[in-house]
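Look at a sample.

——
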Amino acid sequence: MQSLNTTLLRLCETKTTDPTERRIKKSRIYEKQEKGYETQLPHLSNPHKLKKITIMEATTLSEARVYVGTYGKYNNGSLFGAWLDLSDYSDKEEFYDACRELHKDEEDAEFMFQDWENVPEDLIGESWLSENFFALRDAVEDLGDTEQEAFFVWCNYKSRDFSNEDADDLVRDFQDEYQGEYKDEEDFAYQIVEECYELPEFAKTYFDYEKFARDLFMCDYWMDEGFVFRAA
């Protein structure tokens, strides 16, 4: 049995082988009303408390949006602004044009991103939005919902840098390593056996999928959140 596991493993290997960290602590305080947005903040003992989130979460980039105010209004006690859907803009310049139109009552307004949704933390801050957001959004556009979720799991595990790496390279590397979604490691091992070697039905009854899975995930594959990736 051990030699059979080793042989199958070899067969499968052959086949399958301007940014700043400062921002106001996020608070879901903006609820759309008939005449605009609620503009009262809960009491904050330190509204400029530093916060950095280092763990990426699964994000639907096509649904990204940002609440845009200005430092001028904030310093005068106003949180007037609006949610802008980033899907409405092809690049950073178009987005900033919309920000300027929203706050055209101010000359040379300094924009303040007071809240955001579905934007990776590496690509946005209180006073900046990375151009790479739009490149990444477009690069993952052809991935299905499950693949996009797996993409962020992979990026987090590999500590890939959204802010500096080429978005197309990120997606290409992900696709090279992504194997699919499985119930557990043994489920993936069963699929590998089915694809790589035609065992007679009686042999499947005696085959040790648990040990084979252990061999596979010892060096050649890894699994996180139900997604399997080839080790590279």
Observations:
- Residues 1-56 have pLDDT under 50 and may be disordered.
- The beta strands are 32-33, 36-37, 65-70, 82-85, 111-117, 124-125, 128-129, 178-181, 221-224, 227-230.
- Residues 139 and 172 are 9 Å apart (CA to CA).
